[in-house]
């Protein structure tokens, strides 16, 4: 390519660094419009109840109130939304299905007036029996949360995979996958069956769910803290029954999302209130309301594994029950991944897995960093360790014996593994000192491998790169800057292709009217999917520039190279481009623009209808000390590593892996949304325990592997989720190594570990 200072693989300064550290960065929560009103919502105090009546007369009469939204105002709309299943209403219509379900909304001059108005709304509820967990929801006599089936779809699947809407009571969706002969169980010398429980986490993003809506005549304009502006626009158009070109979505910086900020959240209510009031409306949730909006899925995972006496893996069957909460949201997509990833990175003759989304009267659950892999890896990697110890083998050796090789297909019809799994495991084991460990009472070490398909399913991405006459470059794409550094790394790709310093490249603001389409910022797809689109767009621009210069110089484009916004022919002195451009186009100059597109090809052989773009793999190792008198687990060492193929920006990659690992540490030791029946007990920041600085291990190491097999620009792969996925299992495996006791439920709280020790 070039030797310009934008070189790939450096730790170039982030584009958003100065704005964020000085407080100048503008988020949706900072948006203010003239005449803006403020919205608040009335939430249900009941977990499950029929709405007998709603009377907002007194609220509408309160001075300062400009609009009140109830189910009466939903006439003429398609008032429910979701991914595969359209079951969540903008405001409750026939029933409420969890404590916190939205019943009505108010727009007023300020939040204080809006809150007073909520107290004046009279609602008559008819309480119904609740179903607070998956066991209660699946019982034969359980009340149905949805007596009538909401609209829903089953997407196309390939070999061995299938999806099912409402297969049984209170299950909105079930995904199943199977491959290989089922009769191999008779070849197994040992069959192990274990059950694991996975805790529910809150996304805990610092910027709340927030939307500012401005409806003027036929035009709907919103500023939203969202990860998927284009699918959001499409869903809003369906709900509101308007054409998409009437909706314009702006996305400033997003203050964290971790999967929560997909699809409709605050947007429909803000839009409808603005339409009713004729003024802009800001609808911003509190942190406590965020706990009532979306969570990660709790899960019960049953795993049956058959092995030979020498530890060779033969067969694995699994059943996963996700607690989807009151509405489906992204649960069907998470179910696909949780079931599909249950085999882990290992070689099997037979695999059969299923995952059901069980509806309960609790906070809806949806996408969360790791997206199903956190649940499946917790069970899979815990059981691998358990099997090793039952067979008298070292857990490291059992893994090495059964790991898939580089290039080996994950399952029939799927793409090949693009990391050397054994190399990655050796890297972490070596950094941890696993093979040199000395046996010390109450101390132990554990390893785990996190494994997920990355890049999204059937995910298309478009990008545009344009260059001004003076060599200023603009990268225009729909990838949202949510703190992961995409606005910098995508610009690095363009800078490298065009041979200019990174300082000359800007990342354009997202506006769905002019920004090229992207399916969403998810599945660690920014570099492998959008990165490929940006690469192609930059290459298209470069080709245009070289062809233009060649015409002016009377030579072939292949004879020229592009460097620092000048062209060079052989060993001749570089010719600055601005002069050539002005000579043809005059003083106003000209802009070169190139388009890029990337999407993995569909295949009927691929179980999920398209082969995986890349495999996001994380390795983790932990050393712990367990206090037998209290059950407290202290992590002495935590080593986390991901293979990024080729690091476009090494500091960004390191930040993603370390942030992910700390979230994994939280999952392992602290984080859990605790319920008493259907009532959330710790739904506020002071009561919900997340890792603090003092909780970091004395030795915390991240290793960014660059194995070089990635499909993205310059051999890159996605990052940001993989290093979270194996951490909880690695710590639980270390606890087992330290105490001889296996804890099969998260988090590994002192109480839970103490009780396990005393049952032993």
TrEMBL record:
It comes from the Bacteria. SUPFAM superfamilies: CO dehydrogenase molybdoprotein N-domain-like, Molybdenum cofactor-binding domain. Transmembrane segments: none annotated. GO terms for molecular function: iron ion binding; oxidoreductase activity. Residues 22-129 form the Aldehyde oxidase/xanthine dehydrogenase a/b hammerhead domain. Signal peptide: none annotated. Pfam families: Ald_Xan_dh_C (PF01315), MoCoBD_1 (PF02738), MoCoBD_2 (PF20256). InterPro entries: Ald_Oxase/Xan_DH_a/b (IPR000674), Ald_Oxase/Xan_DH_a/b_sf (IPR036856), Ald_Oxase/xanthine_DH-like (IPR016208), AldOxase/xan_DH_MoCoBD1 (IPR008274), AldOxase/xan_DH_MoCoBD2 (IPR046867), AldOxase/xan_DH_Mopterin-bd_sf (IPR037165). This is Dehydrogenase. It comes from Actinoallomurus iriomotensis.
